[in-house]
């Protein structure tokens, strides 16, 4: 169907049918409507009638090819105009084959592999009948107390933007109509959901528009520039107005300024929640605000379906607003080819073939291997061949390694770290003991762990948070490892043996009680279906770890938010004079995080030569070339992530102490060198001025190159205008 045909279809719709198109419900409403024809349970509570369900536009959270086919067929058999349903779900880091959590994917700095993971997730879920995924989540984060940091790629706007694009490419491919192995993507949560006060989920977000535009908006924009089909609003307020009813944000920035003409969906119940926020007296007012703001689909509450018809009839809402919204939804259905092929990719046979197939598990393995970050290594890793190893801790044999939002992933299918380790080590060299539960240690568990540890040359602790301790609704104020595990570390440490720790968690942790105690620390995050295999291979040295942090690890929660691209203040702390009082510092903790953005070790070492610039000046027409020679000075082949940061020394508004502007990953054999070159353009030096103007200023800049955001070499250049 072309646009005129869709408009003609719209003209045939009654107001009630149009408004029902804007309603999204879970599948059990359809099952209810299909059964007795009675209005029961949640439908009755919500004031939703059977005819509303029978004309609703989309379904949330249903998957499984046969189930989707059944619902679509039964729906279409009752549909007056034959408009097919859209099926949407949260395919966040894999469908059945689960990939590492997005924060871990970020730490791979490998956007091509991230794209591949999204393509795999799309292929599996499209076969299971899904049309749209509620991903990528690209909210920028600076507060590890917030449980949803696990869903994002981190604290940097540039890197988040690259990943946003990669995920959209992977999910959507080039042609949603032809390529039924792909999904439409829905970038979320617009906007700034990642900045809730105190890290408490759903909490207030309050920031200047300049900050919003400079730091938080770029990744959403990047997803849209890549052609992302949908946008989901966020639960939080932005400048005092809930994002779901925020005209300036959705109608203004998103639609008018950025030209986005795809579908905007509310988050779960976020239209109705405007009343709890205190931005609407009742559902009717909430519906009024949301439709005016440009929100097309209402997820799981009935404000639109119950109140929009009357709001139109009373003249308060122009029917043109409803028409716009419906047309956008019809266009998405058309873009996915649903009018010609309402079952699209849903195919039970294909589902059996592709879900969790060997090829997909291999991609998950590769990504897990690249996402692990070696945080410390005083020589105990990789494990010495022939050494007796005691693997101790609640994650030694835990299946809880998929992480939150693991869709239809099956925990029991996940490769636990103990199994491949046992398979790959000689008989008799590995002992496994849980040591404690997630939060508690019994005397018996402790005894068994100590006995295993006594007989070993090296102890490997497998510690962490259970998956429900992060994710939505998973905020914490104390981000240390749970008490029982800290006790376990202490007890095992008392034996005085070499000790490595592998961490499974969904956020940067306060590593008190483990970082200093262990001789090596490997951050494995929630590594997904093949996580155990990848970790075993890293521990045994078959894989050289190459992950780099994309979120700073704080010294303690008291330092939060702590992030690398902060401002300098008028009284920065001079590291040589930490005793000075009247400078910006804590008296009980350093300013620096424990581990900075970009940080990660390898089993080999890299040396950086001098940073050289193509000149001392650049112009808008003549970019600057920055180069550095990197050499593998160790004994193993390894991948180094060479990072380029820039600081604008003085701006109209103060500028961050450094900002990532580029990076390159190079694989080098022992003794091998490579010259890495970056091009710095004037465009990369632009920022939002006090009047929100986005431009660069002539003047002095510093450029930093190194293996992370802290350990860099520096040069200076000037931006000059040619005339
Ligand atoms: C989450 C969204 C998710 C939606 C649908 C909400 O609670 O905030 O990220 O897409 O549920 O499952």
For the structure shown, list the relevant keywords.
alpha/beta, eight-stranded parallel beta sheet, glycosidase, binds beta-D-glucopyranose, beta-glucosidase, 22 helices, globular, 723 residues, Cellulose_Degrad_GH3
Return Rg in Å: 27 Å
Fraction of residues in helix: 25-40%
How many angstroms separate the termini?
53 Å
| Uncertain segments | none
Share in β-strands: 15-25%
| Shape label | globular
Bound molecules: beta-D-glucopyranose
The helix/strand class is alpha/beta
The total of beta strands comes to 27
As laid out across the biggest beta sheet, the strand order is 9-6-5-4-3-2-1-10
Enzyme class: hydrolase
Keywords: Glycosidase, Hydrolase, Signal
Family: Belongs to the glycosyl hydrolase 3 family.
Domain Fibronectin type III-like: 640-709
Task: Describe the model.
- This protein has 723 residues and is an alpha/beta fold.
- Helices cover 31% and strands 18% of the residues.
- It has 22 helices and 27 strands.
- The strands form six sheets. It has an eight-stranded parallel beta sheet.
- It is globular.
- The two termini are 53 Å apart.
- Bound molecules: beta-D-glucopyranose.
- Beta-D-glucopyranose is lined by residues 90, 134, 188, 267-268, 472.
């Amino acid at each position: 169907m072309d646009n005129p045909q869709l408009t003609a279809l719209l003209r045939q719709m009654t107001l009630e049918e149009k408004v029902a198109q804007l309603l999204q419900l879970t599948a059990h409403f359809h099952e209810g409507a299909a059964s007795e024809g009675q209005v029961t349970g949640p439908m009755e509570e919500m004031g939703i009638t059977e005819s509303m369900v029978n004309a609703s536009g989309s379904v949330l959270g249903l998957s499984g090819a046969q189930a989707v086919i059944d619902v679509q067929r039964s729906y279409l058999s009752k549909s007056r105009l034959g408009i097919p349903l859209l099926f949407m779900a949260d395919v966040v880091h894999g469908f059945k084959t689960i990939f590492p959590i997005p924060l871990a994917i970020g730490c791979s700095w490998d956007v091509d592999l991230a794209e591949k993971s999204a393509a795999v997730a799309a292929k599996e879920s499209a076969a299971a009948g899904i049309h749209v995924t509620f991903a990528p989540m690209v909210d920028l984060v600076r507060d590890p107390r917030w449980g949803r940091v696990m869903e994002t790629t981190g604290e940097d706007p540039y890197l988040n933007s690259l990943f946003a694009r990669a995920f959209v490419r992977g999910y959507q491919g080039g042609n949603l109509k032809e390529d039924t192995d792909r999904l439409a993507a829905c970038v979320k949560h617009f906007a700034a959901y990642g900045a809730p006060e105190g890290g408490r989920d759903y909490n207030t977000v309050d920031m200047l528009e300049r900050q919003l535009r400079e730091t938080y908006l770029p990744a959403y924009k990047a997803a849209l520039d890549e052609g992302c089909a949908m946008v989901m609003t966020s639960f939080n307020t932005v400048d005092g107005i809930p994002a779901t009813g925020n005209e300036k944000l959705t109608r203004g920035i998103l639609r008018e300024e950025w030209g986005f003409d795809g579908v905007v969906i509310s988050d779960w119940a976020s239209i109705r929640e405007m009343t709890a926020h205190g931005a609407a007296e009742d559902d009717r007012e909430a519906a009024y605000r949301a439709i005016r703001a440009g929100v097309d689909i209402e997820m799981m509450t009935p404000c639109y379906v119950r109140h929009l018809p009357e709001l139109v009839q009373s003249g308060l809402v122009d029917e043109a607003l409803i028409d716009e919204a419906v047309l956008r939804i019809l266009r998405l259905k058309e873009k996915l080819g649903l009018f010609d092929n309402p079952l699209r990719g849903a195919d039970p046979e294909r589902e059996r073939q592709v879900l969790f197939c060997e090829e997909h598990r291999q991609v998950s393995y590769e990504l897990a291997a690249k996402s692990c970050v070696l945080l410390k290594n005083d020589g105990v890793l990789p494990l010495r061949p022939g050494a007796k190893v005691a693997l101790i801790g609640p994650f030694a044999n835990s299946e809880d390694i998929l992480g939150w939002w693991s869709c239809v992933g099956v925990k029991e299918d996940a490769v636990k770290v103990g199994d491949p380790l046992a398979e790959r080590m000689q008989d008799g060299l590995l002992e496994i003991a849980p040591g404690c539960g997630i939060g508690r240690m019994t005397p018996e568990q402790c005894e068994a762990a100590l006995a295993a540890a006594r007989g070993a040359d090296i102890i490997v602790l497998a510690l962490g948070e259970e998956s429900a301790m992060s994710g939505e609704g998973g905020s914490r104020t104390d981000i240390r490892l749970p008490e029982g595990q800290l006790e376990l570390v202490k007890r095992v440490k008392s034996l005085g043996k070499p000790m490595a720790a592998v961490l499974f968690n969904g956020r940067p942790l306060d590593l008190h009680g483990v970082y200093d105690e262990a001789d090596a620390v490997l951050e494995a995050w929630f590594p997904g279906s093949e996580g155990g295999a990848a970790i075993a291979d890293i521990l045994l040295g078959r894989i050289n770890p190459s992950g780099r942090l994309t979120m700073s690890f704080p010294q303690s929660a008291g330092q939060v938010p702590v992030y690398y691209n902060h401002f300098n203040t008028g009284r920065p702390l001079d590291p040589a004079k930490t005793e000075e009082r009247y400078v910006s510092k804590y008296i009980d903790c350093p300013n620096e995080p424990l581990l900075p953005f970009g940080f990660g070790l390898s089993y080999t070492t890299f040396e950086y030569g001098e940073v050289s610039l193509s000149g001392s000046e650049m112009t808008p027409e003549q970019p600057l070339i920055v180069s550095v020679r990197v050499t593998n000075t160790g004994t193993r082949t390894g991948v180094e992530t060479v990072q380029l940061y820039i600081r604008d020394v003085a701006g109209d508004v103060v500028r961050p102490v450094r900002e990532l502007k580029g990076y390159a990953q190079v694989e080098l054999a022992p003794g091998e060198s490579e010259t890495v070159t970056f091009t710095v353009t004037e465009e990369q030096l632009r920022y939002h001025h006090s009047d929100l103007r986005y431009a660069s200023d002539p003047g002095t800049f510093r450029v930093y190159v190194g293996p992370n955001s802290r350990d860099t070499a520096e040069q200076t250049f000037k931006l000059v205008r040619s005339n």
